[in-house]
UniProtKB/TrEMBL annotation:
Domain Hikeshi-like N-terminal: 18-122
Annotated Hikeshi-like C-terminal domain residues: 135-186
Alphabetized Pfam families for the sequence: Hikeshi-like_C, Hikeshi-like_N
InterPro entries: Hikeshi-like_C, Hikeshi-like_N, OPI10
Entry protein name: Hikeshi-like domain-containing protein
Family: Belongs to the OPI10 family.
PANTHER family in the record: HIKESHI FAMILY MEMBER, PROTEIN HIKESHI
Lineage, uppermost ranks: Eukaryota, Viridiplantae, Streptophyta, Embryophyta, Tracheophyta
Length: 190
């Protein structure tokens, strides 16, 4: 049906390594796979196997769960996107009391990766990491604009006053720097 690889850490892992909950849900216990260092695993490649046909309106969604936390959406694959390398941004572990309630007295606490067949239209975005990179990029560009504007600001009572052409001046400077220095735009994406 599907397989996963932890780049630089594993060989391909097929569905048989996962615990199948029902026909649409699978869980990989990270204690079984890596032990306590689950948060050191930063990437996962998930792929559909050649002989598996996922309906066109469905997706295989990937979820992450740290010990004591709820599952959080990580990304997905579809027939039109049959493989993906996903960044694993593990959720913060839950509190000790919450973990005790979740695990009971005898069950060991572990991180889990969940795979679920879901309606593709119901998922937020197939690549959460790409959205986070875009969000970081937008924040860095906005910060650059703010710093530029702040250097020309004056104060009038409780208001900041900037020259009327400040956005044009910033944009021209931004474009010129991007043309001169190819690494300039890349520095925003870090």
């Amino acid at each position: 049906m599907f397989g996963v690889v932890f780049p630089n850490r594993s060989f391909p892992i097929d569905t048989s390594t996962f615990t199948q909950i029902d026909t649409l849900h699978w869980i990989l216990d990270m204690n079984h796979f890596v032990g306590e260092a689950y948060d050191q695993i930063g990437d996962l490649c998930i792929f559909l196997l050649n002989n598996f046909t996922l309906p066109p309106d469905k997706a295989l969604a990937v979820y992450l769960q740290s010990p004591g936390s709820a599952f959080s959406f990580c990304g997905a694959v579809t027939l039109s996107r049959p493989s993906a390398v996903l960044s694993l941004n593990w959720p913060e572990p839950g509190s000790a009391a919450q973990m005790q309630l979740t695990a009971g007295d005898s069950a060991p606490l572990s991180a889990k990766i969940g795979i679920s067949v879901e309606d593709a239209a119901a998922l937020p975005s197939l690549d959460v990491a790409a959205e986070r990179r875009i969000e970081r990029l937008a924040m860095r560009v906005g910060e650059n604009l703010f710093n530029f504007m702040q250097s020309f600001c004056g104060v009038d009572g409780s208001k900041l006053v900037v020259p009327m052409d400040i956005l044009d001046r910033w944009f021209k400077k931004f474009q010129e720097r991007a043309k001169r220095d190819p690494g300039f735009l890349k520095s925003f994406a870090l």
